[in-house]
Amino acid sequence: MSGTSTQSGDVGRLGENDMAKISKYRMVSSMLIPIIGPAKSENLINHIKDPYSRWEDQFQCIFVHVPKAAGKAISRSLLDAPNGTGHNKLRCYERNRQKYDAYRKVSVVRNPWDRLVSAFFYLRSLDARSNGGAFFRRHIGSDVEFQTFIQRLENPDYRQTILEWEHFTPQKRFLVRRDGQLGVDFIARFESLPSDFETMKTMINPEASDLARVNASKRDSYENYYDESLKSIVRSAYAEDIDAFEYTF
């Protein structure tokens, strides 16, 4: 699972309960993928599992980790969570009203055109045995170029399938309450992260370490991947993010 894979050096910082949960989710995921596919498997497990971990409880903070928006770096630096806190939507945290009402809520969003480039190349780099790698190969194809992928998003059915995967899901859907309204106390921006992270530290953990750099990919600036036609397709596919967070290309 994308939210439960461990990196070398992190295992020693995870407790036995943490590792047991990871193993359980991996086992369930491996059983579900052949039946319902990697996207529905990932979304189902993220929906039914307890989104709270000891890091949220320690800092009384809900960090909504939007995929490909510096979430793992924030989790590690702000909450000292060695492997992040998972891609849990805000409405999943609402199930525990006592914690939800008491904890501060923060997140990070990113320019949709930029995030889409980052997500595409990140997923393409994953092993096919991972959920993300399996989804990419099944629905996009390891030999498909980015521009071709964007053109295919003009097909409504294909777009719906792609947006089910968490790395492609519009960011607003992670940050709304069950009533459909944005429910986060502070939304940082990837584009101004150094200064916004200082605000997060003041709110959540003044003793937090410097912002880590995690999962950064080496590629061209996102603007170089688009022409006017491709920009328009993304503008349509991610209209809810562009409107909610007032992004422009």
UniProtKB/TrEMBL annotation:
Compartments, record wording:
Golgi apparatus membrane
Is Hydrolase one of the keywords?
no
Q: How does it sit in the membrane?
A: Single-pass type II membrane protein
One Pfam annotation reads Sulfotransfer_2
Q: Does the keyword Transmembrane helix apply?
A: yes
A molecular function annotated in GO for this UniProt entry is: sulfotransferase activity
What protein name does the entry list?
A: Sulfotransferase family protein
Starting at the broadest rank, the lineage of the source organism is: Bacteria, Pseudomonadati, Pseudomonadota, Gammaproteobacteria, Oceanospirillales
